[in-house]
Write a structure and sequence with these properties.
Shape: globular
Low-confidence stretches: 407-412
CATH superfamily of the largest domain: FAD/NAD(P)-binding domain
Protein name: FAD-dependent oxidoreductase
Number of strands: 25
Strand order of the largest sheet: 3-2-1-7-18
Number of domains: 3
Distance between the termini: 29 Å
């Protein structure tokens, strides 16, 4: 058996470890267009801030590939997949054969079609290690930084550069920061916390045009800058799959074993769609835990094992300047909210099931809420006040408590 993986991030690593749970010997080839040992993408802001060294960026130890009998082709781009011949073509026109293939091509940043953006010399995305390195190379204490986008990527970029410069402006068309995961009340908590670090926010606004060193907003205001960080969203890298004839919607379509429409090809990570159990909808869940778990399932199944991935939910765990937050699920339903100063909790229920939550500040026991969502546990007979204030393992039946505590595993 010859395993081939396109990609080298969390989904790919999950697949390697999944394969090795079943098959300890057959070779694995990993192809990545990046030149780096696998690293933690969420860590790039901490590296830019100076909190992490290069060595601390690694997602797995230096001997990971050797230990798992992996051949690594870094800085190498795949240009095509031939399903019939079961080969992939590389940029140098050479071919590599496979018996089982994993597509873990991730996503890439969107560049908005704003007039004049092409004139801006110092413009960057903020998704890769090389992005962070490029920003660090030109960032100075007196640099004026304009960030387009107040989502997770834009705000982590802002956090990463505050140790070097304090002249940071974030612009977003939405009426609040983190609009895809926070309501207005929760967003205000995070925004005020970040404003204490001298980060300026301009919301309900957009950049209408650029010159080489200025941005004109829809409000008419003009902003000077030395560099621009564009963080307005991502696009899944599905072109290889689509051109190969695989079933693709916004992302690559999979079954519960993470297999594509071809029996020998699997996919995982930001380039795929998952079933969100809180809404019953197929969607892209561009989240590191989701990518790893999909990759692990794919790897096990590629090697002949059996495993399914059926409990996907949107979830984000992140912090800004020491203030932590976790969000999960959907917010369509009846909400129960408590808050004080920089602590906030919102639980959302529908049809006697916890569908989603937001937590800021005190995020202890968030894992219990996540399990309640994933397992769709009925809360009809639970004390909702206790559930909100002091969630406990006793909310689960005895068998599930033992399984969660590592004592007994229910194979069913």
């Amino acid at each position: 058996m010859n395993y081939l993986i396109i990609g080298n991030s969390s989904a790919a690593i999950g697949a390697v470890e999944g394969i090795r749970q079943v098959d300890s010997t057959n070779p694995i080839t990993i192809i990545s267009d990046e030149p780096h040992h696998t690293y933690g993408r969420p860590l790039i802001s901490y590296w830019l801030e100076g909190k992490l060294s290069d060595e601390k960026m690694f997602y797995r130890p230096q001997n990971f590939y050797e230990k798992n009998n992996c051949k690594l082709l870094l800085g190498t781009k795949v240009t095509a997949i031939d399903i019939e011949a079961q080969v992939v073509q590389l940029q140098d026109t050479s071919f590599i054969e496979y018996d089982k293939l994993l597509i873990a091509t991730g996503s890439r940043p969107l560049m908005p079609p704003v007039p004049g953006l092409e004139q801006v010399k110092n413009k960057f995305s903020f998704m890769t290690y090389d992005d962070a390195k490029a920003i660090k190379a030109i960032l100075k204490p007196d640099s004026k930084v304009l960030i387009i986008g107040a989502g997770l990527i834009g705000l982590k970029a802002a956090e990463g550069i505050t140790k070097t410069t304090s002249d940071i402006t974030v612009v977003d068309l939405a009426d609040r920061i983190l609009p895809s995961i926070l309501d207005s009340e929760a967003a205000q908590i995070i925004q005020k916390h970040m404003e204490q670090k001298d980060i300026r926010f301009i919301l309900n606004n957009r950049v209408d045009s650029f010159s080489s060193d200025t941005a004109t907003l829809s409000s008419g205001e003009t902003l000077d800058f030395d560099l621009v960080i564009v963080a307005v969203g991502v696009r899944p890298n599905v072109e290889l799959a689509k051109e190969a004839g695989l079933a693709v919607n916004r992302g690559i379509l999979l079954d519960e074993s993470c297999k594509t429409s071809d029996a020998n090809i699997y996919a995982a990570g930001d380039c795929t769609e998952s079933m969100d159990i809180t809404t019953g909808e197929q969607k892209i869940l561009a989240l590191l835990p989701n990518a790893y778990m999909q990759g692990e399932v794919a790897g096990i199944c590629m090697a002949g094992g059996q495993k399914t991935y059926t409990h996907a939910i949107p979830m984000n765990a992140i912090g800004f300047f020491g203030l932590h937050m976790i969000t999960a699920g959907t917010y369509d339903g009846e909400a129960v909210v408590t808050h004080s100063n920089e602590s906030f909790k919102k639980l959302v229920f529908k049809d006697n099931v916890l569908k989603g939550y937001m937590m800021i500040g005190d995020v202890k026991r968030a894992g219990i809420y996540t399990s309640l969502i994933k397992e769709q546990v009925s809360v009809s007979k639970l004390d909702l006040e206790l559930l909100h204030s002091k969630p406990q393992m006793m909310l689960f039946d005895k068998a599930r408590r033992l399984e969660k505590l590592g004592g007994v595993h229910n194979e069913n």
